[in-house]
């Protein structure tokens, strides 16, 4: 599954005259690596061969603006597992958009979606408010649209995986996130 997702992403964005970006699996940790002198492509790296990781990292790339795409890992901060409740709340605040977009991409592939709190060692699962915020953002994306990169990728995934329009708000239910 991850290999097919990678192929779709690369078909959409690997053109050197366009975004010159590839999605690559097999890594222990996700990371974004902008092209340097000895590197041919910008590289969106995802964990091992996990489809959910591929979709999540693609979502981050689709949301990152031009300036952020020039920075290693988009210049984002990241605190590893074991975050406090306050740190977890900050994490959830910045993860609403990428997880909402990941849910759309997952639907476009015919996959389920699971909210990630990315904090396994602290027993802090995703809060109900986080889930609700993701659901609201997905419905907003369906109603108002997403940027051109996200739209192109979602539609290409839906075509490749023979799925219906992933921008139909009615297919997203808050109860699916419990």
From TrEMBL:
Any Pfam family the entry gives: EpmC
GO terms for MF: translation elongation factor activity
Keywords assigned by UniProt, alphabetized: Elongation factor, Protein biosynthesis
UniProt protein name: Elongation factor P hydroxylase
Organism listed in the record: Microbulbifer spongiae
Upper classification of the organism: Bacteria, Pseudomonadati, Pseudomonadota, Gammaproteobacteria, Cellvibrionales
